[in-house]
Amino acid sequence: MNYPDQLIAYYQTVAEECVPGLSLDCVIFGFHDTRLKVLLLRWKETNEWCLPGGFIYKKESVDAAAGRVLHERTGLNQLFLQQFHLFGEAVRYDREDTWQRQKMPMPFGGSWPDRTISMGYYALVDYTKVTPTADFLSDECVWCEVGDLPSLLYDHRQIIDVALQTLRLQLNWQPIGLNLMPEKFTIPDLQRLYETVLGRSLDARNFHKKITGLSILTRLNERRTGGAYKSPYLYQFDQTNYQKALVNGNLIFV
Amino acid sequence: MNYPDQLIAYYQTVAEECVPGLSLDCVIFGFHDTRLKVLLLRWKETNEWCLPGGFIYKKESVDAAAGRVLHERTGLNQLFLQQFHLFGEAVRYDREDTWQRQKMPMPFGGSWPDRTISMGYYALVDYTKVTPTADFLSDECVWCEVGDLPSLLYDHRQIIDVALQTLRLQLNWQPIGLNLMPEKFTIPDLQRLYETVLGRSLDARNFHKKITGLSILTRLNERRTGGAYKSPYLYQFDQTNYQKALVNGNLIFV
Fold first, then answer.
1. Of the partner residues B114, B119, B172, the one whose CB lies closest to the CB of residue A86
2. Contact B65, B24 (CB under 8 A)
3. What's this model's pTM, rounded to 2 decimal places?
């Protein structure tokens, strides 16, 4: 079967086996070399990119479908996968234009609903543990820098923007870092992550005071040596308190 | 047309005019007499209750549909209406049982999808400004105490629970109170709201320090008199800073 026929067959199968008119998109964030990255797929035979995503089988929960997509694209069984926004605009993007950029067979033969609403999920993953894996609709699956995104299909640029806003807000009340940081790290390392997500620099003393005040860190009897400055202590996340803070928030009103 | 026929006609219209398989449910919170309340509808000719909700017209955004439902049930044009969770379980509740409790005409004649996924929204509204208005599916629309809920249809008990958890988490990073409190209030009044939402008592000195530290309150040159204790100052929300905090969070990491 040639690719256009494969495509039509794929969408035909989706129309038969999946919940109609609902899709999901996963914004998978990783942190590497002081850069925030997001996992993207390049649409087959084009220079157009999109988020990993998919559809929900008729007897599958939407959350389970998101976990499945994440697993298929990364190899991970992720614990921290979070709904963040339903993209439910009446017209989310220019369909004709998008199909042309995707080199869709036109007129598109599938019995496709007029409108697809998409549930956005985001995940924070360990960059080093991911095996990016393309699906049959795409030529490659790679990490792209959030600050330097390529041309994106659909409304995926907006979906990434909203995910990023959510992540920034989340820093106000939930810890982040458990999956993004290596096992042992210094407070300045962690500050770099917060600064990258927030997109601005933070005062080091203030950050130190606030982050250690959250009881989510354990200081090790180890220092990082070899740097230009005095050797900073290494820290680990306190798993129990971290999980508690993830569920309950940082509890500033306790 | 008798009621069962009306029902069938209604669902037929929904099937024709609305997005298939997707609904929305609104958890509308109000605060009155130190109690947190939620707006509920009593299903026609039964003692079964449910949340205000509805469907999305084919050319309507999901957010706009939620605003429409909120307006129809309360008379309010609400600014703070927030998505909080997509209820996307493969089986959300026992349909047969629910239809029996609703006294649905059986077998139900509509061409109804096997599964309905529901987007949950919550709103915080001024109790005194609401005119609760039943729809044609219900006999009455009233405020019920969150701590003393009646028998609820579908998975609406769970939806309220998740909304409440979201609200509790939100206290960690976003202000609440603007729509829930009267225009002028004392810090102990506001503490009562926080305590009600959190379901536990808070230390008064600590609360005073933290809440005034958020820069969302303006102290007036007025005190409340006539109480048993020394007259406390009255406060108002600083609208600009409040709106900023709503969008950006309380910015504990600034």
1. B119
2. yes
3. 0.92
pLDDT, residue A110, reads 57
Q: In which residue are the tokens 């209750």 written?
A: B49
What is d(CA B247, CA B71) in angstroms, rounded to the nearest whole number? 23
**What gap in Å lies between CA A149 and CA A14, rounded to an integer?**
29
The region of weakest confidence among B31-35, B38-42, B108-112, B118-122 is: B108-112
Query: How far are the Cα atoms of A22, A168, A185, B211 from residue B205, in angstroms, in the given order?
Result: 49, 30, 36, 10
Q: What is the pLDDT of residue B254?
A: 42
CA distance A126 to chain B (A): 23
CB atoms within 10 A of CB A250: 23
Residues in chain A: 254
Cβ neighbours around A10 below 10 Å, total: 14
Measured between CA atoms, how close is B90 to chain A, in angstroms?
A: 5
Mean pLDDT of the A97-121 span: 85
Chain B positions with Cβ closer than 8 Å to A: 19-22, 56, 58-64, 83, 85-86, 88-90, 114-115, 117, 119, 168-169, 171-174, 194, 198, 202, 207, 210, 248-254
A254 has pLDDT over 50: no
Give CA separation, A96 vs A103, A110, B143, B229, in Å: 10, 14, 47, 69
Q: What confidence score (pLDDT) does residue A252 get? A: 55
With CA atoms as reference, report the closest residue to B136 among B45, B18, B63.
B45
Domains and CATH numbers, chain A: 3-170 (3.90.79.10), 187-248 (1.10.10.10)
Q: Which pLDDT score is estimated for B141? A: 98
Better-scored residue on pLDDT, A199 or B254: A199
> Is A114–B88 a contact, with Cβ atoms under 8 angstroms apart?
no
Would you place residue A228 in the very low, low, confident or very high pLDDT band (cuts 50, 70, 90)?
A: low
The tokens for B123 are 């709103």
Cα(B176)–Cα(A114) distance, rounded to whole angstroms?
Answer: 39
Q: Which residues of A lie closer than 8 Å to B, measured between beta carbons?
A: 19-22, 56, 58-64, 83, 85-86, 88-90, 114-115, 117, 119, 168-169, 171-173, 194, 198, 202, 207, 210, 248-254
Mean pLDDT calculated for residue range B210-229: 86
pLDDT digits (tens, 9 = 90+) for B107-166: 666 567 889 999 999 999 988 899 999 999 999 999 999 999 999 999 999 999 999 998
Q: Which of A43-57, B79-93, B235-249 shows the lowest per-residue confidence on average (mean pLDDT)?
A: B235-249
The beta-carbon neighbor of A210 closest among B89, B249, B253 is B253
In this complex, the residue of B59, B86, B169 whose CB is nearest that of residue A249 is B169
